[in-house]
Amino acid sequence: MTYRQRISRIAARIVLASGLTFVLSPGAFAAEAALTQAGTSAACGEVTTVAAVTPDAALADCGCPPKGCVRTQGYWGNKPGVAWPAPYDRDAPFFNSSLSWQQVMDSPVRGDAYVMLAHQYIAAVLNGRAGASAPNSLRAILLAAGSWFKTATPGTCLRGACQLQRSWAGMLDEYNNGDYPGAPPHCAEDD
Asked: Is the pTM higher than 0.85?
């Protein structure tokens, strides 16, 4: 089993541990998770349901071709003239951090896995809302990260702590750079 497969299974276990069903929208997969009835599924580009089943079944991708393109956290965070897709706002609070989304993006990492993950999470959420698709394994990571952010705060993951969150940040970085298998490429510079 590859490293990515192990991390994806861990993410699936976190998401599925409560036995709940999550609806993940490919266009807005992170912030719009909602509880629903198990047993529904949809075609490519539509809402996908990840039910409380085995991690392998939950992470099975539809085999659809990637849609859209992705941009890095630097694009979303360092260009004030770039409009973020609705409903996201640079000034909105980022979970329990006491910071806005933009303030989190402006925060230096300095070894803090919380900030490292937050940078990549924000970029991935914005990429999804801007129309980029993502494999189910990546959506599971986004859901798990979103759940973790509900209880975590900056500064809790220093000095090598939070290895799982560091792994998630690495995979989201691959996605945001257009290098994640089965995900869209990086956007062309002239877009």
From this structure: no
